[in-house]
Structure formats: structure tokens, C-alpha cells
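Posting this for the archive.
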Amino acid sequence: MNTEKKIQIRAIEFIKHRYPSGWGGAAVIRTEKDNYYTSIALETANAAVSICIETGAMCEAHKNNEKVTHCICVVRDDENSLFKVLTPCGVCQERLRYWGEDVRVGITTKENQLKFIELKELQPHHWSKAYQSETLEHYQNMDLK
């Protein structure tokens, strides 16, 4: 089984466990060391302080000083609904770019098929193109040495 299918299955299994009924969502991140980190959205009564589903897994990878290679966010509307992959929001795309533009992310498709692309394909006109690549690479890799 390939990495991308493996992390989708991990997300689905976690959702089934954590949210046996009703809505459910989980993200799974894979790192270069082949570690997998799972996270969910922080539930809060004040939507203004909510965070994205992927954030916790990104923080775990960062805490453990590991380079992220893949990220997926999976949701379902209720226990009888199909699981769907959500493309990372713009904020999460920015967070993931810390590890480079080659991070592969699961994206939403019309056919609800599993598909991953690199961030550089998702954001071909990213603002960082205005800067010298050495400057950004230094910043992105300073913790990963």
C-alpha cells in the first residue's frame, strides 16, 4: 500500500474511533522519518478561536523536528456519509510551506478520488517567488539540521 492510501486509511480509522456518530474530521501528517501524526479540530464554543484540523499534527512534527512529506485532512458529515478529502486552506498551505514546496497534500476532487499534489502545484504563484530561494530555504531548514 502506498503512503498516500496509508495516511487516508489512518485518518478514516481515527475518525471512526473518535467520532463514532455524527460529524467527524481528522488530519494525518507523514514525516521523512516515516512517523505519522494525527490531529483533530479543537472544539470550542467560540468559532473565532478554532484552529484547523491539521494544526495539531503540524505542531507535533515541528516539536519533534521532523520534515513533513505528506498531509491529508479527511471529514465526513455523519456516520452514514462518505469520507471526503479537504484541500488545505490557505493558512494551512502557508504553515506546510515551512517544510518546502514539495510537501504533498491531499486535495478535494469532484469524483471524491484520493489525489495528492505538491504545494508548488497548488500554489504556482506563491508570494515567496518574489524572494531569492536561498533566503527562504535557510529559514525553512534552520530547525531541521
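The domain at 3-135 is CATH 3.40.140.10 (Cytidine Deaminase; domain 2). The radius of gyration is 15 Å.
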